[in-house]
Amino acid sequence: MRKPFLAFLVFIFLLAGCNGLNQTSPDRNNPQQISNRAAQPEKVPLTSRGRVLPDERGENELDLKGKKKPIESIGFLEPIVPETAVSDVNEAARDLTYVAFFSYQVKPNGDLIPLKDEAPLAATRRNGAIPMLVLTNFADGNFQPDLAHRIFTDRQASRRLIQNVVTVMKQRGYRALNVDFEHIYEKDRKLYNGFLETILPRVKREGFTVSTALAPKSSDTQSGPWHGAHDYAFHGKVADFVILMTYEWGWTGGPPMAVAPIPQVRKVVDYAVKKIPREKIVMGAPLYGYDWILPYRKGGPPAKRIAPQEAETFAKNRALKIEYNNRDDAPFFYYWDKQGKKHVVWFENEHSMQAKFNLIKEYGLRGISYWVLGEDFPKNWSLLRENFQIRKY
């Protein structure tokens, strides 16, 4: 009987020990104990309309295991030099659903300024991607609000434009349209909606896919020449999908910062999913960075655009320390030029792109759109294939 009795004593001792340990754990019926654990700000989960929240602030790591999410991918192309454009298409188009040709520019009378697009169009088709015509109010190096207003208010010019768009798409073999009117007068918001309500169904009836580009808004009240005239809910209603231009927070004329900081991108997506079905939202991403001269002065030398691979090679060849901002999910480094001036370079790498891919998964978005093809960033394309299944039609 001694062995069973000793075993029973050991069992009682262990049971008492376990109860003692439980007394030091937070009591979920005691709000004070629970709130003490959550008081560390870096451990408080972010509030978001996404499906899976990061564990800590500044982190955006999701489980990449399992079946790849099928998405659509878009690459914007500026076919200024046809030979270069063909090379850019051949490099990226196998990983793209659409190649968006930027841009067919509108004339005040509704005519279009054509592109030298024959060779890159053929390359796009050979690589199994869909050619997308991008229609803009771009002229003289910038988007023109007066030009947009003329198209919105001159019925003859508007009708002529719509017919020209359909004709060019049929003649050249475009299969999708993106309307990218920017810097529109805020007062022209309803006029722009009316234009879209006319052109998009007309083009869609011809069998083409239709989309629009949207400035990165985070609220209904955001105003001004870039944001004010873009009606998220209306675009989501009349277009097959929309492209969020979630980049250019860091830009050539502004202060040094990440081009597409994740907290800012998240705010835009949080707003967008309130207004537009998730399956219609394509999130924008930059294939470039900027090199600023320090100290930054408003009106001083503009930042120079730099390709991600170029930035990384530059830093490695000079043994520069590449740092990473966990809040913005973006890499950067400093250097001094031959004239003794200090620079800072913000760019993209595989870690910052993974953070953007994670947002697409988290929110269940339609896909990703890149501005702009031709910037050397081979790691992006291999990482894109690792994360997603690219839809081809």
From TrEMBL:
Superkingdom of origin:
Bacteria
- GO CC entries: endomembrane system
Q: Which organism is it from?
A: Thermoactinomyces mirandus
| Molecular-function GO terms, alphabetical | chitin binding; hydrolase activity, acting on glycosyl bonds; oligosaccharide binding
Which keywords belong to this entry? Glycosidase, Hydrolase, Signal
Q: What is this protein called?
A: Spore gernimation protein
Region span, Disordered? 24-63
Biased-composition ranges, Basic and acidic residues, are 52-63
PROSITE patterns to which the protein is assigned, alphabetical = GH18_2 (PS51910), PROKAR_LIPOPROTEIN (PS51257)
